Structure formats: C-alpha cells, structure tokens
Amino acid sequence: KRRTFEAAPAPTREEARREAAVRDFDLVVSDIGLPDGSGCTLMTELRARRPGQPGIALSGYGMEEDVARSQAAGFDAHLTKPIDVKALDDVIARLLPRDA
Fold it and tell me: Beta strand pairing status for 55-59 and 77-80?
C-alpha cells in the first residue's frame, strides 16, 4: 500500500516553532541536533502546546541514554542514523495507523 504525506520542512528549531504556531502536525520527525538548539527542546515545547503530539527523533547517537533522553522529551520513537527506511515506515504506521 502506498502512503503519501504532506511535509513542512523546517531546518531549524525556530522555523519549526513558527510552523507549529500556525498549524497542527499529525507527526513531527526531528533531528536531535538542530543548528539553533536541540530537537528534544523542540519536542518538549510542541508537547506543551499540544499534548500527545506524536514524534520521531532522528539521531546519530543511539545509546540507551540517548534514547531515554528523547523519550523524556516526548518523542514516541528514536531512530539512529543512517535511517533504515523500512524502520521509519514501520514507526510511522504504528503512530499513524491510517493515512495522514
């Protein structure tokens, strides 16, 4: 089954915050290391604005403490780069059981 998504790219935390101020997202996929801050801080802010906001953290770090940090920030899943596309699709399907 083919899945389609509308994406709103935001390369910085500030741009993501601006996008989130004017629209709700079905899912947030964010790198942990952003040029102007942490994706964990971004997710914490987004969850404060919209409790239950689903999110997937992307990181070059995958140690137990890295995963725990992203989960504490509110991410539902933590994927380590390089990202396996099937793993990403599986997480998306779990978080968004219907097409977004």
Answer: parallel
Coil, helix or strand at residue 80:
strand
**b/e map 9-28, b = 16+ CB within 10 Å:** ebeebeebbeebeeeebebb
Nearest to 45 by CA among 10, 6, 79: 10
Q: Report residue 60 as tokens.
A: 């070059």
80-97 confidence digits (pLDDT tens): 999 999 999 999 999 998
pTM over 0.85: yes
- Residues paired with residue 77 on neighbouring β-strands, in sequence order: 56
pLDDT tens string 62-85: 999 999 999 999 999 999 999 999
Closest to 13 (Cα-Cα) out of 50, 22, 32: 32
Nearest CA among 77, 80, 76 for reference residue 63: 80
